[in-house]
Amino acid sequence: GELQKIVVGASPAPHAEILKAANDILKEKGYELEIKEYVDYIQPNLALESGDLDANYFQHLPYLESFNKENGTNLVSAGAIHYEPFGVYAGKTTSLDELQDGATIAVPNDTTNEARALLLLEAQGLIKLKDAGLTATKNDIVENPKNLQLYEVEAAQLPRVIGDVDVAVINGNYAIEAGYKVSDALAVEASDSLAATTYGNVVAVRAGEENDPAIQALIEALTSDEVKAFIESTYDGAVVPLF
Length: 243
What we know:
Layout: E1 4-10, H1 12-28, E2 31-37, H2 43-50, E3 55-60, H3 61-71, E4 75-83, E5 87-90, E6 104-108, H4 111-123, E7 128-129, E8 141-143, E9 149-153, H5 158-161, E10 167-170, H6 172-177, E11 187-188, H7 194-198, E12 201-206, H8 213-222, H9 225-234, E13 240-241
Helix pairs in contact: 1-8, 1-9
């Protein structure tokens, strides 16, 4: 029979690429994707709210919830698909074990990303935080045995200062743009970390449509073994499946 069309808005990479990888699986379920690519973060949500899209795939849940609050939209997650991990990259020091007393670590200076960086440093046993989670700042550090010095920098600028510091904690997308491989990082966020599960990229739909058969088919295709293999072989650790 004729395939039913699902219109999905997405960022060009990696989201649209992952959707294309899921299309053959969807066809077997009786659906076909029409992918509309967006380079901004506002239009795909407005287009979904207005009914021009059936779903979109480009954002994490905290952004979606913030967008709803600011714009009066009523969009929800139908499922988390992947996350793009933070990594600790070598500057003057090539191993976390070799960090000396008073070593300098560059971290993002905005609240959300700095908290992710601090949680990653805590996971490596370098610092200990009060239980501030994803609102943590350097003021929440309660143990710092190596007297590490945090150098706060705008996230996009981190790759540019890496030669001046011992190590830097860099967002996945900025690391890739700068030519770093996540596989070369000294440490990477775990897939079960608070940050990974919080900032997983989701398929968003209008509230009440999460269980529509077409949306369920889309989620099943995106969380299939075939798509998992595509993500793992294509992005070299820069995009990590959450399934």
